[in-house]
UniProtKB/TrEMBL annotation:
This is NAD(P)/FAD-dependent oxidoreductase. Belongs to the FAD-binding monooxygenase family. It comes from Nocardioides potassii. The keyword Oxidoreductase applies. InterPro entries: FAD-binding_MO, FAD/NAD-bd_sf, Flavin_mOase-like. It holds the Pfam family NAD_binding_8. PANTHER family: MONOOXYGENASE, PUTATIVE (AFU_ORTHOLOGUE AFUA_8G02570)-RELATED (PTHR43872). Its cofactor is FAD. It comes from the Bacteria. The lineage of its organism: Bacteria, Bacillati, Actinomycetota, Actinomycetes, Propionibacteriales. Keywords: FAD, Flavoprotein, Monooxygenase, Oxidoreductase.
Amino acid sequence: MTKAEHVDVLIIGAGLSGIGAAAHLAKDLPGTSYVVLERRAVSGGTWDLFRYPGVRSDSDMHTLGYRFRPWRGNVALADGQSILDYVRDTAREYGVDQHVRYGHSVVSADWDSTTARWTVTAEVDGEPRTITADFLWACSGYYDYEEGYTPDFEGQERFAGQLVHPQHWPEDLDYAGKRVVVIGSGATAVTLVPAMAAGGAGHVTMLQRSPTYILSVPGNDSVKARLTRLVGEERSYSLTRWKNVALQSALYRISRARPDLVRKVVRKTNVAQLPPGYAVDTHFNPSYDPWDQRMCLVPDGDLFAAIKDGTASVVTDRIASFTETGIDLVSGEHLDADIVVTATGLNLQIFGGAELSVDGQPVKPHETMAYRAMMLSGVPNFAFTIGYTNASWTLKADLVAEYVVRLLKRLRSTGTRSVVPVRDDSVEEVPLMDFDAGYVQRLVHTLPRQGTVAPWALKQNYLYDAIKLRTAKLDDGVLDWR
């Protein structure tokens, strides 16, 4: 029997998080052996998978970019191809691209306390392949890359046009001159609608069951441009990053403390960009408070501009059924459509779908508690990267990477073989993601829990986490080193 390959660290996923994690190992722990297993044939994760018109970041690039590698230029909300290029350039710069194994779908990982190693099994062309590792790091995000979420719509089989989900956008989709209905009102929908309208669609209708908070932001950061002229690219990136972190944090805190005030401000900005007399309170006045769900940002008000010039419209109603020619609504209205895009959300899937076990006993994530929102109680030498829901993903990903590097340095310098968070059963449980988004609520019961006190509690606050995680003692009475 051939001996399995062994590495110090095995990373699952070669997207934004996985490339960043590996770059941290390369620059901060030289000599560490690692591999990155990626189920798809290419790197980039989300930014390679999504190919729909207008795909772009839904948070500013000066915080979505890595802390250690500046996002160059002044573009705030960048297009998907530019982000993909940035991720892949990072991989090349730090030699990460030489460590990625493509077509490896991780199906299971078992920790053996006797050898203090993970045995990871991946499927490659339908055949199992195993690799052992001292440390396992899941960087595959939290949604299913194979299938997006589409509700069962009454009568959809009768629709004679094309039904498309943004996660599987056909390369040859011709929507020139076509009547398009985009179902949804989240970040994907508000990106698609103006992009398709500008791309030659006959008319694009955003059909939403209920409104979302939508805020126009400048497409380019003028402060960053001025800072770059004064202090250069790298320093301006750092300063702009902190400026945007402070603004994001302030908006979130004010939204939670003074929701009525933020609601009024957002409404006022919407009114200013929409046609006179537009039904703002019907289409842009959500029933929930700001940041109960993620707020959608639109660069330079492109969605509002498309509505104003008549190439796009918004309908707030419920679907009664599909027909051969479009969609019947509960109100009795009918929407004619040649193409219907179901921008209806994602399916959650943690750890890339891999089944974890410890000494042969399956790990049930919902029965574990998340330590610092990056490790699981009772699971040794394991970390996972999940970004913020109220700020840029990479802010948290960088902090997780820095903390994991600290753990690995401690293991190496002391000769310790394993580290595991030990749960305090007196700590009360709450959901890991306190977020009302549909994709979270559908499967929140399957996720790890978090606690109500540190280090089991997630603050969703980068400024707080940046201080706590960088200064936290590794001998905190919760981590068990063996």
